[in-house]
Specification:
31% of the residues lie in helices and 17% in strands. By secondary structure, it is of the alpha/beta class. Helix 2 packs parallel to helix 3 (86-94) and helix 4 runs parallel beside helix 6 (147-160). Bound molecules: S-adenosylmethionine (SAM) and iron/sulfur cluster.
Length: 338
């Protein structure tokens, strides 16, 4: 199967705007033990378990994408580390010979126990979400998260020998914008990277007016310059972030700015949901049902590969969301796979 797809697609996945798709994000579950106010509703409904892709289906999808030219896979969610047997899936994907790297995004709550096994399963880099260093505030933003377990998870990840650890921070005005300096200082003290993400209007969360809490990357950068020197770098991870180094530290600061600096022109990624929907674009509703194709063609990934290649021709030029836009994606971020 591998060779058949590879032979018929020597040039990889390229969309009609000439963008090469080399990066796949897979949401392995839409479930999560947190309910972050920018991601979910308090009473979020999850996909019935019998509609989720099996781990073997996810492994087949990952293998097919790698055969088609994908070189980096991120497992995300929902919370990837609450999925039963996730270590098995990590080992399967990490063993794909033509994959350059397997990485994950996690809320860190289960890392104190799992960081070592996740690293041993072949995960090379890890992103950990952390929006506050104050326990009460952390609980309010995540609606039920325990800061201490996440901090212990971050230390376990540092001890486990990941090639890179990065904190992901969503800043909301009047909720945590006064912690920007503290969070960067924390990253510097731990010798890890940090990225700030502008909140995206993905799904209705009912907690706040997204325009009211918007805190742009340029303002975060200006806040940081009161204490840190930020030196722009041309380093890239092939994604939308813009990076800065803080001299004499190990820390790189990134800014992901879907509102203030649209990043679609360089987009190299697609997503697969836990139900098996292939999403060519984070900010658009269109999807292709890979689960149906897999189940109609058991034991054969030729049709799956063909459908994935065709879907790239429908990848839109960019997302259309904006503050106040009346067309926002209905899917929540835990489904889409952030
Ligand atoms: N549960 C894991 C975690 O929180 O790291 C992985 C999934 S989560 C959906 C992935 C990332 O998306 C997190 O860093 C989270 O902060 C971010 N995120 C969730 N909803 C978002 C939104 N509406 N806008 C911007 N980032 C969001
Ligand atoms: Fe869970 Fe991550 Fe969404 Fe927070 S951002 S609710 S941790 S999936």
């Amino acid at each position: 199967m591998t060779t058949e797809i590879a032979k018929s697609a020597p040039t990889g996945l390229i969309d009609r705007f000439g963008r090469r798709i080399t990066y796949l994000r897979i949401s392995v579950t839409d479930r999560c033990n947190f309910r972050c106010v920018y991601c979910m509703e308090p009473n979020q409904r999850f996909t019935p378990r019998n509609r989720l892709l099996g781990l073997d289906d996810i492994a087949r999808i990952a293998r097919t994408f790698v055969d088609l030219g994908v070189r980096k896979i991120r497992l995300t969610g929902g919370e990837p580390l609450v999925r039963h047997n996730i270590l098995w899936l990590m080992r399967e994907i990490a063993a794909l010979p033509r994959l350059d790297e397997l990485v994950i995004t996690t809320n860190g709550s289960r890392l104190a126990a799992l960081a070592g096994p996740v690293r041993a399963a072949g995960v090379r880099r890890i992103n950990i979400s952390l929006d506050s260093l104050r326990p009460e505030r952390f609980r309010r933003i995540t609606r039920n998260g325990n800061l201490d377990s996440v901090l212990r998870g971050i230390d376990a990840a540092r001890a486990a020998g990941f090639e890179r650890i990065k904190l992901n921070v969503v800043i909301l005005k009047h909720r945590n914008h006064d912690e920007i300096l503290d969070l960067v200082q924390f990253a510097v003290d731990k010798g890890i990277n940090i990225s700030f993400i502008e909140e995206m209007p993905i799904g209705r969360v009912g907690d706040h007016d997204r325009a009211e809490v918007f805190y742009p990357s340029d303002t975060i950068r200006a806040d940081l310059q009161s204490r840190f020197t930020l030196v722009p770098t041309t380093e890239t991870t092939g994604g939308p972030a813009r990076y800065y180094r803080i001299p004499r530290t190990e820390t790189r600061v990134g800014f992901i700015s879907p509102h203030s600096h649209n990043f679609c022109g360089d987009c190299n990624r697609v997503r697969v949901t836990a139900e098996g929907q292939l999403l060519p674009c984070l900010g658009q509703e269109q999807a292709l049902d890979l689960r149906r194709i897999l189940h109609e063609h058991p034991g054969d990934t030729t049709e799956l590969g063909r459908a994935i290649r065709d879907a790239m021709q429908h990848k839109p030029q960019g997302h259309e969301f904006g503050l106040g836009a009346n067309r926002i994606p209905l899917r929540h971020m835990n489904v889409t796979g952030g």
